[in-house]
Amino acid sequence: MDIKQLNAFIAIADCQSFSLAASTTGISQPSLSRMLKQLETDIGVELIDRYHRPLQLTESGRFFYDKISALLIEMTTITSMTQRLSGPSKALNIGFVPSVLYGLLPEIIAALKRRYPDIEVNLKDISSYQQIEALKSGDIDVGMGRFAHQDPWIKQILLRHERYMVALPKSHPLADTRDQRLIDLVNNRLILYHQTHLPLPAPIEQSVADDSAPITEPLLHLFAQYGITPLMTTKVSDLQVALSLVAAGEGITLVPASLQTVRAEQISYQRLMHENVTSPIYLHTLRDVVHPKAPDLLAAIYEVYEQRGITYRRQQFV
Ligand code: BEZ
Hints:
The protein is built from 11 helices and 11 strands. It is an alpha/beta fold. It is globular, with a radius of gyration of 25 Å. The model has no long low-confidence stretch (mean pLDDT 92). Strand 1 and strand 2 (56-57) form a beta hairpin. The protein has 3 domains: 3-83, Winged helix-like DNA-binding domain superfamily/Winged helix DNA-binding domain (Arc Repressor Mutant, subunit A); 92-160 and 279-308, Periplasmic binding protein-like II (D-Maltodextrin-Binding Protein, domain 2, 3-Layer(aba) Sandwich); 162-199 and 216-278, 3-Layer(aba) Sandwich (D-Maltodextrin-Binding Protein, domain 2), CATH 3.40.190.10. Residues 100, 103-105, 108, 144, 159-160, 258, 281, 301 line the site of benzoic acid (BEZ).
């Protein structure tokens, strides 16, 4: 068994056709067919049922496909990591989610450049889940997001918890009320904007259409922690759209406190009285390949926290 045979098997399975696999891989059809036959002979199992069109995986073939494709992705990650160990990128490539950009990110980058005037930084707007793939492929060196990840390749540093605030139209009856309770917001249309959902605990993930399944939409999850279900919700594509709808009087939403300057002429941001209604901010890197400038970035983050009197627990790259 060799890697060429495994790649041939994956291509045939993905395309469900020898001819399509030949045109996507640039390997001739007879060669692909020979590689697949040799692989099946080596492991003594028929992987692809050739009697159906389009081609189908056998039951054993499906198992083999799942495991081998994960393994091939890991091999690509390992290769890319090995290359970066021998020569890290000159610039520090930072992936971030939009909600951190509205907050302290510009100030942190300014602090980093003040400390290290020669540092080269590239910023990329990229969702939490895509950051994990981008770290593995080498597209970014550091990711900043609001979701925890349980990935063996990834090191995660919790930077801080940021309090959520309620965003209401200026004309709303609660617009001037401080320290609000979630229960008092239940009759409003809640505008949801997260594209990434909270991970399900493993055993429940496998259960199908379970009424008691945990709520993974982050804002609904916050309400659910207090046994509250908002009466009406609207889902939009991102945070900017959500705040535009609030400004237009279409509903309310919850946003991390650092967003409270966005559309401040039309939106009133009020604190919630619940101290644990917070959004975490994480810094992610690869576990085994840490860009030499990543600790400098962490130092700049802590410098900004100190200047602003933000509570945090100092951590280090080890
Ligand atoms: C923060 O608001 O804590 C933060 C924002 C951007 C990057 C890192 C931290």
